[in-house]
Amino acid sequence: MIRRRPILTTAICLCLAATGLTGCGKATSGDKDSGGVKSGPGVTASTIKLGSLVDLTAVFASLSKSVVQGTQLFWKQQNANGGVCGRTVEVTVKDTGYDPQKAVSAYRELSGDVLGLQSVLGSPVMTALRPLAKQDDMFLGFAGWSASVLGDEHVQLLGTTYDVEAVTGLDFLLREKRVAAGDKVGHVYFEGDFGENALRGSSWLAGQRGLTIVGQKIKSSDTDLSAQVATLRAAGVKAILVSAGPTQTASVAGVAKSVGLSVPIVANGPGFTPQLLGTPAGPALTENLHVVSSLAPPALDTPAARDLQAAFAKEYPGAVPTQVGSVFGYAQARVVRDMLQKACDGKDLTRKGVLTAFHQLSQVDTGGLVAGPLTFTDPAAPPTRTVYLSRVDGTVPGGLVAVGGPVTAEPARAYQPAG
């Protein structure tokens, strides 16, 4: 159970420089500093202020807390090394509760005081905010991977899309000979952009390879999936895809094992958090679950991942690192740093200047924290189609071990995600 701390359910300024600055200063668009850098909302001579809208109290609470920790860690390190453009970077966090209406209110509270939003968690929230961001020329860093944002120049997608993940996950099951032509595959998915985008990918590859998808649409409030698993068992599925939250993944795995449906399960990245391994579903997850995500598992054996894990353990002793939490928050902040620096080099830290700099980023290397180099020059294309496939292992930090290196599945190259 996640213990909710009151401080996390309200706006907080993460002022991470040694100076301890906590001001939320404003600047008029077009102002210039002594170096000739134009500035706008959220930028002063000493600070760059960003926002973060995450879910600290609902379905993705544990992952959101981890996102914030990864974000805090990166900017603490970066600010200690001089910040960006000679400025300290501050991030103000607000809780949306995975509620689009609450997110809109939080956006309106923040929008006049920030240069952009580093993290916006959840497809329903992103859908609600995109029209406002377009009006405000606001940069939105998406903590989500729905293809619906493709083509929107305001939205940063850190990795590939849910449908490409689903294609890759189903291709993995085919290559491993866990399913074959003529088989049925269950797909439990959230209603809305997240789940339905993933279903589009699985249905496409199923049509290519002679499989049948048995879909089970659920709501984010559905936590006991006994009925859905019973339907899949009766249908005789040979594997299950899950495009939902951690609670739903645990329910699918636990119920399936209890009724004798011992089949492989593949979840999109947001469907797993290592805290699940301490629940009654832990053994079933360890036995049957793989996770497909653009983010590296925390225990990945590369220099960047090892450095991050060591720094995370030092900064948050006892905290649990997560793939689409702490690794995501840290890697996204790293890419935002590159974007802000490019805007600074272009002498334009206005919102338009930041968006221009964002779409000049190409072949961005995160040291493997995100699978594959990232190219943001074409808003209509995912910045990569490469992912990590991981199996559950409760003996390592983050509970996941990569299966081989980063993977770009052949059918994922041919598949065309649609915004």
Automatic annotation (TrEMBL):
UniProt keyword list: Signal
InterPro entries (alphabetical): Leu-bd (IPR028081), Peripla_BP_I (IPR028082)
Domain Leucine-binding protein, residue spans: 47-393
Signal peptide feature range: 1-23
Highest taxon of source: Bacteria
PROSITE patterns according to UniProt: PROKAR_LIPOPROTEIN (PS51257)
Family: Belongs to the leucine-binding protein family.
Name of the protein in question: ABC transporter substrate-binding protein
Species assigned in the record: Micromonospora zhanjiangensis
Lineage per the UniProt record: Bacteria, Bacillati, Actinomycetota, Actinomycetes, Micromonosporales
